[in-house]
Amino acid sequence: MTGNRRRAVPRAGATRGEWTHPEFVAIAEDLRDAVGLVFPPNRRESAESGMRRAMAAFAISDPREFRRALEQDGEAREALITELTIGETFFFREQGQFDFLRASVLPEFRAIVAGKRRLRLWSAGCASGEEPYSLAMLLKDAAWPDMASILGTDLASARLAAARRGRYTAWSMRGVQPAIVARYFERRGKQFLLDPTIRQSVDFRVLNLAEANYPSTAAGIEEVDVIFCRNVLIYFDLPTVTAIAARLLACLAPGGWLFLGASDPPIAELVPCEVVLTGAGLAYRPAEANRRVRMPAIEAPYLPVEDSLPAVFVPAEVLEPPPQVARTAPRPDTSLRVESFDPANDPAEPRDSQHSAYDQADYDAAARLARAAIAQGDDDEATWVVLVRSLANRGQLAAAGEACAAALDHHRISAELTHLHGILLAEGGRHAEASVAARRALYLDPHFTVAHLALGDALSRIGDTARARLAFINAEALLTGLAPDTLVPGADGADASHLLRIARFRIETLGRARDASRPRYRTRTRHMRFSSAERARSRCRLPRTSPCKATPTGHCRCSSSG
């Protein structure tokens, strides 16, 4: 996030999720057309706040005047884009991907590239340069034998200017090993000056990823061996994401690697590519000629990847309250409290940990204790889950989303955190994006039951009844194999019997909806009026050669009549 800015307060008369002035709507549409940025309802409040900050920077108070400035002045648009896209990053962010690059990718390229051509790396959406400079330091530490070409691109030229200066604060150094800081930075007061040799090894250029101007021989954006494009695709709608993903993959050299961020949508269902599940999350490579996608190993014959999509959770109005779960049952590592649990009926439990505070519905204490534990280095997955859930249960969805993104930086292959990311998206009404998160969770753990339920709910919300029903059938298949009182991981204390009732209820209702949506055909016939005798003759069983003895009143006297 960018600094410690105060949260914008909606202006009088504004409804949450709506723009307060029609010119802000027009500005948002202009940005969508120009650079592909989109602002769903849950982002409009913060987006309008960013627009107003950009207006203040140019001493403009009227949104109409600001829109005219955007049409005429490149600096105004630059300031606005800087405000609306998160430029916060730090060196060696998501360390696991750098470790994978060092241990697995570079040795592979030593045999292919070394001595033949330069290794090419590209940081797309590099902000103020920490990411491409991290790549440069990694290559130097790994004693890469030849020259390498490292490119950093971003939409905001102001950020690229800061990147070229190579001056950073301690905030950009958090998590960096002291030996790295000592080796590559010179401390001057509160600033850290980057080693000139590292600074000179990276080339920076302005590039709008939403524009179809790459791959490009002239710009040197082709045959790239490694692309980092992390936490960038979250700003775009799915058609734009699809187009960008296709172009990024087209920029890769044979055998190249594309790394996305923990918050970015998985792209395997959008474009042809090969997917590799690494210890640092998903990575992508150009598709092989004889197949479209290679998915990570999934032992789930009941879950074809082609039949999976979105995520959310079941609307409360169709559910009965979950039964109270005995506290004697063991709590799985990532299962938390029962929704209907009453602390008054439970033996007193000291609130000495984030887990016990959460179990007693003291979400403020749970969040505080979880943050303290994380600050002290106890950042296991369960602690992050408590933090995210506590913030969400307090209604602080934006803070919960930020915590979830930070958690995924540390635990990229956590199915539960990925699932929670989808739940938060769904709470903001972003069901299509939530579906992407659910799909990712099921890539990571196809037996994660709550992701199947979330998937089915989200699909039903976007009108995909058939696949929604299949998702609930998959959940039912998993739940029927559990004892009724089994606490289901990730279900916040609900047991298998309760979730099974949910799954079966949704299967039944979606089946009715499917049947109701099927077209009904009727054979259209001419309406004819028959006399009583004619109707009687029509029921007669005598051969046609034998005249029926039906009377005018409709009574057939034939011995073989019906």
First-last Cα distance: 85 Å
Largest sheet: 7 strands, mixed
* Averaged pLDDT: 77
Show unreliable segments. Answer: 1-14, 289-351, 520-531, 541-546, 550-554
Gyration radius over CA: 30 Å
Shape, principal axes of CA atoms: globular
- Report the structural category: alpha/beta
Beta-strand portion reads 5-15%
Query: How helix-rich are the residues, as a percent range?
Result: 40-55%
Number of helices: 21
DSSP, total strands: 10
The spatial strand order of the largest sheet comes to 6-2-1-7-8-10-9
Can you characterise this structure?
This protein is an alpha/beta fold. Helix content is 45%, strand content 9%. The protein contains 21 helices and ten strands. It has helices at 22-35, 41-57, 63-72, 74-84, 95-112, 130-141, 157-165, 170-173, 178-184, 196-199, 238-251, 354-359, 363-375, 381-393, 397-410, 415-427, 431-444, 449-461, 465-479, 496-517, 532-539, and strands spanning 119-124, 148-154, 167-168, 185-188, 191-194, 202-206, 224-229, 252-260, 274-278, 281-285. A seven-stranded mixed β-sheet has the order 6-2-1-7-8-10-9. A three-stranded antiparallel β-sheet has the order 3-5-4. Helix 2 crosses helix 4 and helix 14 (381-393) runs parallel beside helix 16. The longest helix is centred in the C-terminal third of the chain and has 22 residues, at 496-517.
